[in-house]
Amino acid sequence: MPRVEAGWIDGIKYDGIFIFGIAGIAILSGLIIFLKPSMFLPVLVIDLLLLSYHHVIATFTKLAGTADDRKENRFLIYLLPFISLATVIALYGVFGVFIIATIYFFWQWYHYIRQGYGIAVFYRRKSKKLPKKNTVISQLAIWAIPIWGILNRCGQGWEEFLFLPFYVPKVPEWLVTFAGFVAVGSVVLWVLNKCNEYRKNILSLAQTSFVVSHMLIFYVGYVLIPDLNTGWLVVNIWHSAQYLMFVWLFHVNRHGKLEKTQNVLSMRTIANREPLKILTYFCVTLAMTFVFFGGLNIGIELVSSSTGILLSNIVVIGYQTVNFHHFVVDSLIWKARNKKNRKAMNIS
To answer: Taking the model in full, what pTM does it have?
Structure first.
């Protein structure tokens, strides 16, 4: 009896890119910037245009991709954006730009962890042998290194994030060191647990590999790389690219066997595994990204010129409104316990 099951969420080709390829590209990007700091801006721009903004728009293909989706998610589509905008404007009016940048820094860190946690749950449920619920040791493996990482960044005393002033509480060095010991201990416990799963013939290669990539990315992005922005960029590339691939697979599984529509831009038409359709799918969603953020930029310039508020401040308000909406929506629509999501991803 084999001691290891593959447990791929789709197949070795897809999962190999999803788990190993994306993590490799993200870490390589950080290495390039570490060796040549002047490459930070070019890599950042490429990430924002092709991955980061793109993955935000990909959310709407899940949120509003069909008539049923739009009916089910009316509040998230039609009301939540205005609530997000009002909240960001209120925060700006009372505290200024720095509070928005501060909230974004900590919320996106949590958002990245939650995506990793959620995907790990999907992999666990895909396994035919692993228990469906995460154990305490599994939870520690997901959270310990990211918590060490964020405490490390706080301990470093940064005052600027992505060219914006922000605030992090001063964390004593002993606490960062203690968090590091806890993280290392958690990894050791997790490895021992995986050895136990191997002995019991229930080890999942895919689930194990994904959690390793999750821990590695957060270690590289928040501990190993000394520069705050470069480390963040590594994690952002990993997060955004993974999200794009996961959403594509969701649509392929959900729509692939349904009758195609006459609308050439319908998800039912372009979400399949044919190479040309894969290219079409990502070109369409990327075009949607440029249209949306192009319109957002025009609106930002008009508001800035009419109100006299600094353009840079309006940019922060506009883009963080979109980001905060995205964070809330993602926390609600991708639950593995949702039967529709499990059905679409072919998991139990």
So the answer is: 0.93
